[in-house]
Structures are given as structure tokens and as C-alpha cells.
DNA sequence: CGGATGATGTCACTTGGTGTCATGGAGCCT
DNA sequence: AGGCTCCATGACACCAAGTGACATCATCCG
């Protein structure tokens, strides 16, 4: 007889996603989430630093994916090409979880506090990519700008991809957006 | 005999800036700020939506400045050139308040919650610029990407400008960074 | 067998944020 | 002048997010 049900963290995430979806982020208390998962408020905060974080714990994985994709790009790749490789790697990951991704996105778009958290996660993602570019020998203003521009492309593309009327692949949209970026910055 | 001291909002901002600087954002309660300004906690929240917002009330002005600069750019200007004009307008504004800007920046950099707020303000600034570009006839993926890239340039430049070892003008740094962006995206 | 471990529960507390009603000087109308 | 309304502020009670401290008890390990 085990003392606790397994995967408390996963149960909390599941409960949070469900409740945020049903009633909205603001109308869901941490106590509600914990109760739904058969736990207490205090335990929630042992697994997640704050109420919002329950939706963002996967972001560390994304950072890892992007960083290793940048590191794995061919020696000759220009900064933006290395970033493009990372974005493609990311697109695969999301394509496999489209249902979850768009559900989560709907919740985030509906709440400014969650958008703030999303932005700071993307910002640290960009910083990690910039560091990875730096490791490839690109100097600092260039590395940061390539990373930031790349993440901007990713964000814009992601938004178009989750749109219900969209029928295209995330990767397709990303490459189109990258081309747009290049067009718009080359005068 | 007036019933209240004038400019409650300004007194609250001044008190907040001082206290955040002295003790840090986390070690300052809203009640502290209000007391320092000779007011109550309840009144603080009548002037600012939350504790962080006391540092960001000027951002609406910045949006206006950027948007009108984009609108005022020459007819023939490419998207990124119109954005560049906006960034230059912004640089003037900050150059006039360098002392305040760098003090405020130090406070923000020291606190993740404040960085989140900063990011969402920059994000809405980018959105406003994108709309202004749209009004000039540029279509949507291009308009958004030019705006996002431009704001990224602004952020990177601002960080370098407030660095105590820096001796250059914000406008100089911005133009250098714009050139870097163009170099890095033109393969 | 017994003690250490570690995830969870309990409880009390601080602080951010809000709803509601009271207060009283300033300004306006007659 | 007298009185009336306006409105920025105060007072008070309340909820929810987070945190610190200590208790509990199945499992694991020697």
C-alpha cells in the first residue's frame, strides 16, 4: 500500500489545465487546483514556485532543445541559419503536441499575467540561444540580435500556427516568416 | 487651506523609486510607499493598478512617441527605416532623463517580477509600432517582424547605453545595432 | 528491527489587492 | 451667505497568493 498517489506534479498540472480552461485563470484558486489533484495548497507550492508556473514547467526542455540544435548546426552556418535549425527542432516538438499546445495557448492569451510569464520565458530562451551562438564564435551584439530576431520569428509563427483556420505546418510557417524577416531587414 | 497635498501620484512614484532603490522591491510594502507619501495603501491602488505599475506609468507616452514617429517617416521609407526613425525619437527622450532612466533600470534588472512587466510593456510597444506600420500599407507578417526586430534593437541598445562604462550616445548605439541586425539577417 | 529520509499535511502569518461606506474641503448655484 | 454636490482620500473588512515551522508516517537502508 503506497502512501501517496504517484506523480503529484503531473496531477497538479493536469488539474490546473482543466480548471483554467473551464473557469479561467483568475477564477481558479491554488486551493482548487490542489483539491482537484487530491493535495493541499502547501504541496502545490512545493512543486511550483507560483500559480502561473504550473503552465510553464516544460520551458526548460525547450531551452535545452534549442541550445543543442544551435550547437549541432554545421560549422559553416551563419548565425541566423543556426537559429533557423533550432526553430525547426522546436517545430517538431510542438507538432507532436498540437492539441496540448493550442489549449495552453488559449489559456495564456486570455490572461495578461500569464502573458508576462510567457514573455520572460521566451526572453530567457533567447538569452540561452544567444549564449549558444556566442559559443560558436559570434560576437555579442550580433549573437543577441540573431537570437532575439529568431525568437520573434518563432513567436509570430507559433501564433499563426495555432490559429484554428490554419492548415499549414509550423515548420513551413517558420521558414516563410524567416524569409519575411530577411526581406524586411535587407534594404 | 487645501485639504490634500498636491500631486499624490507623483509623490507615490517618488517614494516608490526611493524605497525600491534603498531596500529593494521585495523589501518594500505598498503600505511603506503610501506612508512615505503621506497616503494610505488604498489610495496607492487608486492611482496604480498594482505595486509594479508605479514604475511603468510613463510607458504610454513612449508608445505615443514611437507611433507618431513611425507615422511621420517619409513616404518612401522602408519598414525598418520608419522604425529606425521611431527609435531615434525614443533615444532623444531617454537622453534627456538619463539619470532617472538608469536608476529605474537598476531597480528593474534586480527583480524578475519587474522584468516581466518591462517585457509586456515592450511587447505592447512593438504591437503599437506594428499597427503603425500596417497603417503605412505594410502587410502583416512583415509589419510585425519589423516592429519586433526594431524593439529588440532598442532593448539591446538601451542596455548598453545605461552601462556605467559607456560613453556613447543612445542614438549612436542604436544605429550601430541596427547595422548589426542588417548584417546578421542578410545572408 | 530501528533509525534516517523525504513527500505531504497543518497552521499561522505577511502582503497584495478589492469592495464598501464614511468624511470633509472645494467649487458651484441661487 | 447659505447650502449642495463632487470627489479624492481614509477606514475597515475581506480574499487569495505565498512562506516558514513543525508534525506525520510509509519506505528504504543498514
Largest interface: A-B, 33 and 33 residues
SSE pattern of chain A? HHHHHHHHH
Helical proportion of chain A? over 70%
Spans of chain A of at least 5 consecutive residues whose pLDDT stays below 50 are none
Oligomer: homodimer
Mind describing the biggest β-sheet of chain A? Answer: none
Number of strands of chain A: 0
Strand residue content of chain A: under 5%
Task: Give the helices and strands, then pairings.
The structure is a homodimer of 187-residue chains.
Chain A: H1 8-23, H2 30-36, H3 41-47, H4 59-72, H5 79-95, H6 98-109, H7 112-135, H8 140-162, H9 170-185
The first copy, chain A, binds a DNA duplex (30 and 30 nucleotides) through residues 1-4, 8, 29-31, 39-43, 45-46, 49-51.
Q: Can you give a write-up of this model?
A:
2 copies of one chain form a homodimer. With 187 residues, chain A is mainly α. Helices cover 73% and strands 0% of the residues of chain A. Chain A is built from 9 helices and no strands. Chain A has helices at residues 8-23, 30-36, 41-47, 59-72, 79-95, 98-109, 112-135, 140-162, 170-185. The longest helix of chain A has 24 residues, at 112-135. Chain A is elongated and about 60 Å long. The A-B interface holds A 78-81, 112, 115-117, 119-120, 123, 141-142, 144-146, 148-149, 152-153, 155-156, 160, 176-177, 180-187 and B 78-81, 112, 115-117, 119-120, 123, 141-142, 144-146, 148-149, 152-153, 155-156, 160, 176-177, 180-187. Chain A binds a DNA duplex (30 and 30 nucleotides) through residues 1-4, 8, 29-31, 39-43, 45-46, 49-51.
Amino acid at each position: 500500500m503506497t502512501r501517496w498517489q504517484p506523480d503529484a506534479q503531473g496531477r497538479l498540472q493536469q488539474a490546473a489545465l482543466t480548471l483554467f480552461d473551464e473557469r479561467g485563470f483568475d477564477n481558479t484558486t491554488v486551493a482548487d487546483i490542489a483539491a482537484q489533484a487530491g493535495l493541499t495548497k502547501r504541496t502545490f507550492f512545493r512543486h511550483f514556485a507560483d500559480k502561473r508556473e504550473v503552465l510553464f514547467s516544460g520551458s526548460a526542455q525547450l531551452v535545452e532543445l534549442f541550445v543543442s540544435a544551435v550547437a549541432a548546426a554545421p560549422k559553416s552556418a551563419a548565425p541566423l541559419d543556426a537559429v533557423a535549425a533550432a526553430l525547426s527542432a522546436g517545430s517538431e516538438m510542438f507538432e507532436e503536441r498540437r492539441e496540448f499546445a493550442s489549449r495552453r495557448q488559449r489559456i495564456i492569451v486570455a490572461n495578461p499575467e500569464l502573458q508576462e510569464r510567457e514573455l520572460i520565458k521566451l526572453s530567457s530562451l533567447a538569452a540561452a540561444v544567444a549564449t549558444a551562438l556566442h559559443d560558436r564564435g559570434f560576437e555579442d551584439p550580433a549573437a543577441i540580435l540573431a537570437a532575439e530576431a529568431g525568437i520573434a520569428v518563432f513567436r509570430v509563427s507559433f501564433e499563426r500556427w495555432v490559429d484554428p483556420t490554419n492548415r499549414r505546418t509550423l515548420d513551413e510557417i517558420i521558414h516563410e516568416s524567416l524569409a519575411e524577416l530577411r526581406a524586411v531587414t535587407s534594404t
